[in-house]
Amino acid sequence: MANEVKDRAAQGMDHAGQAVRSLNDAGSKAMDKIGDKAGEAADKAKGVVNRIADEATHAGEKVQGWAEDAYEATRKEVKADYRATAEVVENYGQEVTDLVKKYPIQSLLVGFAAGFLVSRAVKS
Hints:
Order of helices and strands: HH
Mean pLDDT: 84
Strand content: under 5%
Number of helices: 2
Radius of gyration: 48 Å
Number of domains: 1
Number of strands: 0
Shape: rod-shaped
Structural class: mainly alpha
């Protein structure tokens, strides 16, 4: 009877050892799978980050292009407006010169009157 108990205890220990080894193997396999899945997730995350970085770079290039286009269009417009204004001022100056040449005494009197009115306004 003692031998039978002893044999049964040894069998129980063998079963327990096998169960522990099976659990250990299952745990190792599970950890390997988890590690593999984590690696896959990390690779996918890297891919997403790389795509986002590429899109951000592309968007930055687009914005830079738009800004350069806007700058160039504005520069051309300002240059055209400057030329038009210079032309108008030049024409006005020519008209005033022609009037002074045509009416020299009247122009002199108008100049004196304007100077008198400006000096009176400044004194007040």
